[in-house]
């Protein structure tokens, strides 16, 4: 039986989410403003 | 691997620079940068990416004027706090433009200037025909391409 891939979405804080499936973990808007605020948008992918 | 806009060039040892309107393939995942309207940012933007057969959009910090129709968005992360971003009423109008399968509110109640009620957003959005899921900080949901 074919099983649909499942994606888990976790709200970490403010505008930052972890989006994860079996192959990837993506952090969207991971607080990079602490490095060079107010440049905020970035995605960290592992 | 960090994907970031041009002003962050050189900030990380392993990074891909992405401009608004462009897309890149990173570790097998397509990531596109979209425009936003945010007066305090030198390079406002959001992202669209696909994972598990689902198309996600994160609008970043944006006013409604920075929100444009996006095709086939399954999951939309949308700011509702109202300070330098959309408030609840503007966010509902943004949902009218994008028509995601489900919207998840963000950018609220993490500092005094953006106090708002996500359940009020949910009620107003759902009255306008949009599905909203409110996730508490630290909470998770699972989604799949069948909409479960």
List the helices and strands and how they pair.
The complex is a heterodimer of chains A (46) and B (148).
Chain A: E1 6-13, E2 16-20, E3 25-28, H1 33-36, E4 43-45
Antiparallel strand pairs in A: 1-2, 2-3, 3-4
Chain B: E1 2-4, E2 15-17, E3 23-26, E4 29-35, E5 45-51, E6 54-58, E7 75-79, H1 88-98, E8 102-106, H2 118-127, E9 140-144
Parallel strand pairs in B: 1-2, 6-7, 7-8
Antiparallel strand pairs in B: 3-4, 4-5, 5-6
Describe the structure.
The complex is a heterodimer of chains A (46) and B (148). Helices cover 9% and strands 43% of the residues of chain A. Chain A is mainly β and 46 residues long. In chain A, strands 1-2-3-4 form a four-stranded antiparallel beta sheet, with no helix packed on it. With 148 residues, chain B is of the alpha/beta class. Chain B has a domain at 28-127: Ribonuclease Z/Hydroxyacylglutathione hydrolase-like (Metallo-beta-lactamase, Chain A). The longest helix of chain B has 11 residues, at 88-98. The model of chain B has no long low-confidence stretch (mean pLDDT 93). Classes of the chains: A mainly beta (46), B alpha/beta (148). Chains A and B meet through strand 1 and strand 4 of A and strand 1, strand 4, strand 5, strand 6 and strand 7 of B. Strand 1 of chain A pairs antiparallel with strand 9 (140-144) of chain B.
Regarding quaternary structure, how should these chains be classified? heterodimer
Q: Low-confidence parts of chain A lasting 5 or more residues at pLDDT below 50?
A: 33-41
CATH architecture annotation of the domain at 28-127 in chain B: 4-Layer Sandwich
Return Rg of chain A in Å: 13 Å
Share in β-strands of chain A = 35-45%
Number of strands of chain B: 9
Which fold name corresponds to the CATH topology of the domain at 28-127 in chain B? Metallo-beta-lactamase, Chain A
- Element pattern of chain B in H and E: EEEEEEEHEHE
């Amino acid at each position: 039986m074919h099983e649909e891939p499942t994606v888990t979405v976790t709200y970490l804080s403010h505008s930052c989410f972890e989006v994860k499936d079996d192959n990837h973990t993506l952090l969207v808007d991971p607080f990079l403003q602490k490095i060079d605020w107010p440049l905020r948008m970035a995605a960290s992918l592992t | 691997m960090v994907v970031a806009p041009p002003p962050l060039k050189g900030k990380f040892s392993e990074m891909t620079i992405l401009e608004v309107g462009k897309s890149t393939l990173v570790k097998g995942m397509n990531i596109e940068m979209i425009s936003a309207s945010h007066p305090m940012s030198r390079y406002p933007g959001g992202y669209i990416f696909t994972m598990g057969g689902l198309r996600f959009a994160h609008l970043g910090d944006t006013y409604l004027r920075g929100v444009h129709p996006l095709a086939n968005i399954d999951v939309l992360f949308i700011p509702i706090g109202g300070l330098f971003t959309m408030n609840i009423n503007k966010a509902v109008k943004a949902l009218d433009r994008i028509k995601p399968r489900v919207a998840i509110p963000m950018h609220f109640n993490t500092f005094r200037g953006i106090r708002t009620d996500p359940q009020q957003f949910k009620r107003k959005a759902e009255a306008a025909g949009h599905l909203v899921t409110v996730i508490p900080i630290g909470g998770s949901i699972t989604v799949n391409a069948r909409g479960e």
